[in-house]
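Technical annex B. To support the medicinal chemistry partners, we prepared a structural model of the target in complex with FE2/S2 (inorganic) cluster, based solely on the information shown next.
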Amino acid sequence: MAGRLFAAQIAGGPRPAWTDLYAPRRLPSAREAGQLVKFQAAVAKHFVGDRLRTSHVDLVNDISPSSGAVVRLQGKWWAAYRDEMGHASALSACCTHLGCLVQFNDAEQLWECPCHGSRFATDGSVLHGPATRPLESREVPGAKD
Ligand code: FES
């Protein structure tokens, strides 16, 4: 289909009717536009709402072993993790794709972004895009603002 579409666009002239469905400049249908608006509203809700929600822990030391939490410390959002041995590590909680705050997935022991689905290992490395850069590593903070 792609070959036929490109050939039709290059050659010009009459095209099969179905090529309009795949035209890069086509306007979305009302149904598609509604879904797009709904999706973007959910992203905006996470981008703003997750920053307004208070953390369920106040200090990195409050995080249980094999768990993670987003903590607001020193005016920044931290993705803090404590491994099964109790060793704490910290990353920036801002997703490197477009800046939503990541959330910890306890079942899979990884950070994931609710906005577009990027996933990061506990060391911040990218497991799944659209993000392509790792979460920024940080020193473990000792005290809350
Ligand atoms: S902002 Fe995180 S995946 Fe898009």
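Notes passed to the chemistry partners:
The pocket of FE2/S2 (inorganic) cluster is lined by residues 95, 97-100, 113, 115-118, 130-131 (CB under 6 Å).
Strands lie at 67-73, 76-82, 88-92, 103-105, 110-112, 119-120, 126-128, 137-138.
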